[in-house]
């Protein structure tokens, strides 16, 4: 993609019940309704409407069992299914907000004990976000929020391990300069969280001039 004005690619990450979906919806509405309104679309990963997504959904709801390597590759394939859609939106000047992305894939699988570099490999070359917002909330806070425990990974020990991997990803992202990684305290009221998110996003709300990078074209571990 050439270095012309394009839409911004914004990813919202975090532990389960950190408020990602709520904040993604608030952000989309704000982008579309502000003084400098922007076209914005919201994509949720996994996309459970595709054939691959339906397999992932059954697994997350504990309705099926899959090898850890297999489910990781399915999550990655689900992202690749939408890569061309992301590129098309950005080229058309549309801001793309992703509720979860490749970073979640690494965090959850590496926490299981799969090699970090192996977990990262299937997503090399995906469109890289301009900004990743990590909604940081302790598992003990997430546990008391509605719906916690309904899916496979919503257990405190799992979430603590996932949080540690997210910290590593954030440090690598900051070190390599491949997009911006901003941590948001998501333990507060949603309006306060939304304001912090907007402060980070607002500079991108009128579009991006730089060309879009691809994830991990340069190994962040080196």
TrEMBL record:
InterPro entries: P-loop_NTPase (IPR027417), Thymidylate_kin-like_dom (IPR039430), Thymidylate_kinase (IPR018094). SUPFAM superfamilies: P-loop containing nucleoside triphosphate hydrolases. CDD domains: TMPK. It comes from the Eukaryota. One of its GO terms (biological process) is dTTP biosynthetic process. Pathway: Pyrimidine metabolism; dTTP biosynthesis. GO terms for molecular function: ATP binding; dTMP kinase activity; nucleoside diphosphate kinase activity. It is an enzyme of class 2 (transferase). One of its GO terms (cellular component) is nucleus. Belongs to the thymidylate kinase family. This is Thymidylate kinase. It comes from Pisolithus microcarpus 441.
């Amino acid at each position: 993609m050439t270095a012309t004005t394009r839409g911004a690619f914004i990813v919202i990450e975090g532990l389960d019940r950190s408020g990602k979906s709520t904040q993604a919806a608030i952000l989309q509405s704000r982008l579309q309704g502000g003084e400098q309104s922007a076209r914005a679309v919201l994509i949720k990963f996994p996309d459970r409407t595709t054939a691959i997504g339906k397999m992932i959904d059954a697994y997350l709801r504990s309705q099926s069992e899959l090898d850890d390597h297999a489910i990781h590759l399915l999550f990655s394939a689900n992202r690749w299914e939408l890569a061309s859609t992301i590129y098309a939106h950005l080229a058309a000047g549309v801001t793309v907000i992703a509720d979860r992305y490749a970073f979640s894939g690494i965090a959850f699988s590496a926490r299981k004990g799969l090699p970090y570099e192996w977990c990262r490999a299937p997503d090399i070359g995906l469109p890289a976000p301009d900004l990743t917002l990590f909604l940081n909330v302790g598992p003990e806070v997430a546990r008391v929020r509605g719906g916690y425990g309904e899916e496979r990974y919503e257990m405190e020990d799992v979430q603590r391990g996932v949080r540690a991997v997210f910290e590593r990803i954030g440090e690598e992202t900051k070190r390599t300069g491949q997009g911006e990684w901003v941590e948001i305290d998501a333990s507060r009221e949603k309006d306060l969280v939304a304001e912090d998110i907007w402060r980070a996003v607002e500079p991108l709300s009128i579009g991006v001039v730089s060309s879009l990078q691809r994830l991990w074209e340069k190994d962040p571990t080196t």
